[in-house]
Structure formats: structure tokens, C-alpha cells
Specification:
The structure is a homodimer of 401-residue chains. By secondary structure, chain A is α/β, with parallel strands linked by helices. The first copy, chain A, contains 7 helices and 28 strands.
Chain lengths: 401, 401
């Protein structure tokens, strides 16, 4: 192996993980557990919504034409014909010159086509004075105006939000077809690693990445499966990878991906499968590996936590989304002004942590091994590969973390 | 009771729910389960991080001064003194004019203060040619540069992200002090409501809101407890509210909050506690109730799903965040240009659903009862109370959903 990585552009790395991503099969979950999951099929409404023309106000159902020209000084006087009760129709049609009290959600009676808000009326004996005209269909939702029976309410690939729960409930989707949560195997490698519960001695560091990768995977709708700390010994590493590949839908390896000869991730992946990419034109995160063992995608992430995080956000995210069958959940960016010059090397996409406050992005030029920039920053500045740097005061897009 | 609501401004409603929010007690969870939870106490590092000065590159540990003035044509020649192994110190100090191979994460040996990247060197027999100077402390992380032992790594009130998992792991925080997940009781009221599994008849609608509210509560770190559909009968409603107040930390009632005389939420809350606000200057969502039963906050939300959602986002969110002890997780807004004029009534805060695409916000002027605007929109436009409307082409801030 050469001492130097042969790097590929970020877009090529993303395309490669998207190609490797095999969508997981679907399963059905109760509606109450579907939020955050990804739809595996289009959902159709089993009814017309609404199933009847209904009022969206408390007020009086009228024929809109009867209110034309009405005002405070010139109210329209309509005869009150009782009241609609929730869930019940009117006893008889309402005629021209008449009105009937209707609560929000009430069934609009035959002969009426709009609702006057209670606030715009005044009772006068058995009559109602209407002081503001309403238009045809004002303050009502018409029969099947919202969704038609059989129509698609939400489409395959959608990551379901709290609002979507309401839409699915209305459509009668009590059992929701979603993609299964992919299992993501997580291996941390390195003789220097000790568990969180141990006090690291000189030369040792705690296993930080497996917690971060597991939480990232869970945040992205996956089930993390951690395989603990793997020593830099080939048989142990090979056995752990083989087991993870057997048990999981994808494997993320932390550490062991740089070109130092002790690093064996690429060799172990190649032995059990294929290394497609070793090295991405990204900083931090250059020594990333993309490979596969059979149909199971395997990523080798750099050991530095901040670099690991950038590769998770920029590259691995696309793998997880692809497996789970969605393109939703893209990065959210907001514009900001740079507080200082940012130098950059052409030919490499740089991701620099920033503190974003009041529209100003302050870059934290921390070394990629530092954790405090993980704690302090709330955004990432992407410097495109073709840029040689950005200037103070320039407007840039910041990826929100 | 008067026919009209006496409305309060949105900021007063928010201040009221924040005052009502009693922070829940803390509990301890394993680190692997802490992501998304809110820290109940500051977390201190139990060690210096790192515990030793370490390399962040694969390369050669050197005395930086030995590389001054070096370049491609004028390399510095340093005698190679073997290699550092991971987790182990050097056998002996490195002297001026010497260097030693060091892997990423290796312990910087005595006598050196920087690391030259392998890429900027070339071997020549037993010597290493350095072709680029390094500065004092370049490519190393110094002893406790990241966090000092006993220092605060993350503060109370922080909503923990995937990145934070890494920081907590490094600090030795295997058991994380977090606020308990508040239990949010959810009551859906209305004679017109039927469960999702039933086909609604004329006059009926499915119970949409309890699913939406439950998912919203869970998204905000709470445990939803649903009490099913409550009929508009005072004894049933009173019993359900009493039970929810006994069992939960807060109660959200859907429906029954408008001023129609059949709507009894305010009366039932007043009977068991106190109604503080009935009516907010917000559209949709005007007939919202804010009250309490003992120390348990009780909100009455409008029955229209789209209105319910706006009140959840604008008002209830502050209640849940207050209970859980955080101010994190504010709304994310991005600037956009309006595609059309937006009329508005002065004195009322309007929230209009928009489709945001390529920096253009297209308002969906759907009636607040429509579900399809919930499915189609991806943002909310806030029109401030003092505005009489917004104009085509104007730059506005869109709340991302």
C-alpha cells in the first residue's frame, strides 16, 4: 500500500454510499409509534375528508346571498331556525331569509352555503342581525375538499412528523407501513481506547466515538448495535467485523482508517469484501474508508471525534437515509456573516465548526481532535473544494447542528 | 360567560405557561440512553483531557525550531530515532536534530513540541527530510488543552445531542443526570369524534389531534399519556380531567375550548382549578385556554388540527421546555422571499403555513381545519401583531417545521 491516500471528491463519496445503500424491508407499526419513521408505501385515505360540509366557526349557517351588502348600519335580518347539534343534521332545510345556529364542526344544513361568525351578528328577538357579508363557502370546509377517498395523503419515503400523525389518523391509517429500522453495527478500534468507566492512563483515551456514532444512528432512525472496543489485532478485528456484518445492515468502524501501517481497517475490510474508496477530499475526515462485505456497506471513520462527526454528517447520513428509504432530513442551513477570514486549501472541502449568534458566524479553528469545539459550536461552515478561502463579512451558509 | 373571548397577546400567553411550568425532578440514565434528554446538572470532567500531549497526525515528532526555514529545495535533515507505538511513550528523550515517527494519537516524547505530517517529509537512509516548517505545538493537542479535570464540559439545561455523547464519554460521565420525562395527559373531547379505526359517519370526524399532540410531546422529550375520546358530558369530562391531573405533570385538552355554550373545557378546568387565560390574539388558535389544577398546568387547545398545531408550536412548546428544564430547541427560522401579498389583521399574530422552496415562501391560505396544508407545508410564516400585512417579494423569516 502507498503511504498516501488517493482521495476522491465528496460528491463521489456520497454517490458511492448511496449506491451501496440497500433499502431495508418494510414492517407495520401502530400509528402511535410511527412518528419519526419513514413511510414504506403511499398512504391513501379510506374516506372522503371531510365526509360532509362542515362549519369552521361558531356562528350561523346562512345562504351567503342573504348577507350581501350587510354592514353595521345596514344589517341583514334573518329568522333564526333553531340550532344544529354536534354530529347531527338539521331537522329541516333552511330557506332563504333564515339562518340556524351552528357550532364549529357542525354539519352545514341543506339550503345554506356559508357561516357568519357569531361575533358579526346580534340577536334581535327571534331574528339574527348579520352585520358583515359572507361569501359563498366562507367559513366552511366542503365535502371532500381536504382529501378524496382513495387519494394519496402522504407519499412513500416521507419521514413522518407530528403533524403527519394527524393526517394519517384522519385517513384511517391505524397501522402504518414503514421501513424497518436498519441495524448499524459499531466497532471502535485502537489499543489506546479504554471504556468510559475507566480512568485513562498516559497514552490512553476513552472510547468517545462509539457513543457519538450510536446516538447519530438512533437520531437517524436506526438501531445502533455496539461491539465494544476492538484491539488492533488482526484476528480479533476480523472476527468482530465478520460478526457485525452477519448481524447488521451496515457497519461503521471508528478508528483504524488512516494510512499508518498499524491501521488495519482497510486490510480487514478488503479481506472480507471490497474497499471502494480510501480517502476523501474533505477536512477533517480525509482518511475515511468506504467499502462493503457482501451487500453490507462498511464505513471506516477517522478516530478523531470531530472528524468522525463531520464524516457522519456529510457522508454517512446519506447511507443511513438510503437504507431507510428517504431523502428527507437534509441539512438545514441558514445564512450568516463571517466574523473573520477563513483560509482553505483548493481541491478539498473544508468543514469548520462555528458559533452562530445573531447572524454572525465565528469560526472555531480548533484542531479536529478537540472535543470542546464539539461542545461549543452550533454550526458547520462548508468551504467548497474550489474555494481558496472565505473573507471577513462574506455571507455564507451555515449548517445547523 | 360572555359570548366573546377576552384575548391576551401571544407574549403574555407564553409568559403564563412558563410561569406555570414546574421543572420535573432529575433521574440518572446510562450514557447510551441520554441523547435527546436535558441535563439536570452541570457535568464536570473527572480527568484532564487529553491526559498527555498527543499527535493529531501520522508523522514525525520534532522540535519545531529544527524545521525553521525548511522547504522543498532546502529540507531540514533530521535523524530518525525509531517509532512511537500507540499507547506507549518513547524509550528515551528526542534531542535537537532528531525526530521520531509518531502515529495519530501517539504520546509526544520529551524534547519534541510539534509533529510534521508524513506527507511533508521524505526518507533518506536513516534520516528524514522535512520539507515544510512546523510551528511550536503544531499538529499536537497539549495536555489538558481540551478540558481540565473538574472543569464543566456541558451545562445544566442543555438538550443533549449526538455530539454531546462524545463529550460526556470523554469526561467519564457513564451515568448522566437528566430531568425526568414529564408525563403529558392528552384528552380529546367532542361528541363528533370517532377513533381512527372507525369509519366516520356524517357529522363525525376521526380523532386526529390526540395522535398529533402525543407525537409532539414525545418529540419534545415528554411521555404522552392518552385518555381516549371524552364525550361532551360534564361528569365524564370532569372524571377524565381529574384522573389526568392526578397521573400526569401537565394536561393538554383538545377541543371544547371555544366559546360555544356546548364547549365545557373552561368550566371543567375552573371547577377543578383555575382558568388564567381564555383567548389568545393568535390565528389560528384564538380560543386557547391556559389554566391549572393545583400545580398541574392544563391547556385547552382548539379542535382544528392546524390550529392545534400552531398552538403547540407557539405556546405549548414553552410549557414542555420549562417542565423539562431547557431553553434549547428553539424554533429554527430561515429567510425567504414572499411569493404573494399576505393580508393580516392588526392586533393579532398570524401564523400562515407556507411551502418553502429555493428561498421562496408560498403561503397556503388553507382554512385552519384543512389537513392537506399540514401535509403540504414545510414552514410557518409569522405575521407580527403590529403588522397589517406583508408584501410580495418582501424578505420574511420562515419557521421550519
Amino acid at each position: 500500500m502507498s503511504l498516501f491516500l488517493s482521495v476522491v471528491p465528496v460528491h463521489e463519496a456520497i454517490a458511492t454510499v448511496q449506491r451501496l445503500a440497500v433499502q431495508v424491508p418494510q414492517e407495520t407499526v401502530p400509528l402511535a409509534e410511527a412518528c419519526g419513521r419513514v413511510l414504506a408505501a403511499d398512504v391513501h385515505s379510506d374516506v372522503n375528508i371531510p365526509g360532509f360540509t362542515r362549519s369552521v366557526m361558531d356562528g350561523y349557517a346562512v345562504k351567503a346571498a342573504d348577507t350581501t351588502g350587510s354592514g353595521d348600519a345596514t344589517p341583514a335580518m334573518l329568522t333564526l331556525r333553531g340550532r344544529i347539534r354536534m354530529g347531527q343534521g338539521a331537522d329541516q332545510p333552511v330557506h332563504r331569509g333564515e339562518c340556524i345556529y351552528i357550532p364549529t364542526g357542525g354539519i352545514l344544513p341543506e339550503g345554506t352555503d356559508a357561516v357568519v361568525m357569531a361575533e358579526n351578528t346580534e340577536p334581535l328577538g327571534d331574528d339574527i342581525l348579520v352585520k358583515k357579508p359572507v361569501a359563498h363557502h366562507e367559513n366552511v370546509i366542503r365535502y371532500n375538499e381536504d382529501f378524496k377517498k382513495g387519494g394519496v395523503v402522504l407519499s412513500r419515503g416521507r419521514r413522518l412528523s407530528a403533524q403527519d400523525m394527524g393526517v394519517l389518523a384522519a385517513a384511517g391509517c391505524a397501522e402504518v407501513p414503514v421501513t424497518r429500522r436498519p441495524k448499524i453495527g459499531i466497532l471502535s478500534t485502537g489499543n489506546e481506547l479504554v471504556p468510559v468507566t475507566e480512568i485513562p492512563q498516559i497514552g490512553q483515551v476513552r472510547d468517545v466515538n462509539s457513543y457519538m456514532i450510536a446516538a447519530f444512528a438512533r437520531d437517524h432512525g436506526c438501531i445502533p448495535v455496539t461491539y465494544g472496543i476492538i484491539r488492533d489485532e488482526r484476528p480479533a478485528f476480523e472476527a468482530a467485523l465478520a460478526r457485525a456484518v452477519r448481524e447488521c445492515d451496515a457497519v461503521l468502524i471508528s478508528g483504524g482508517s488512516s494510512k499508518d501501517d498499524r491501521d488495519m481497517a482497510a486490510a480487514v475490510i478488503a479481506r472480507q469484501g471490497e474497499v471502494l474508496i480510501h480517502g476523501i477530499a474533505i477536512a477533517p475526515g480525509k482518511p475515511t474508508i468506504i467499502g462493503r462485505c457482501g451487500t453490507v456497506p462498511v464505513l471506516g471513520l477517522p478516530g478523531h471525534p470531530a472528524a468522525t462527526f463531520v464524516v457522519l454528517v456529510v457522508i454517512a447520513r446519506h447511507l443511513l437515509n438510503g437504507m431507510i428509504g428517504t431523502t428527507d432530513g437534509g441539512l438545514v442551513t441558514v445564512p450568516a456573516k463571517l466574523s473573520t477570514n477563513v483560509p482553505s486549501t483548493k481541491g478539498r472541502e473544508d468543514y469548520i465548526r462555528v458559533v452562530l449568534r445573531d447572524g454572525i458566524a465565528v469560526p472555531l479553528f480548533g484542531k479536529s481532535g478537540l472535543l470542546n469545539t464539539l461542545a461549543e459550536s452550533n454550526g458547520l461552515l462548508r468551504v467548497p473544494a474550489e474555494s481558496e478561502g472565505l473573507e471577513t463579512g462574506q455571507t455564507v451558509e451555515i449548517i445547523l447542528l
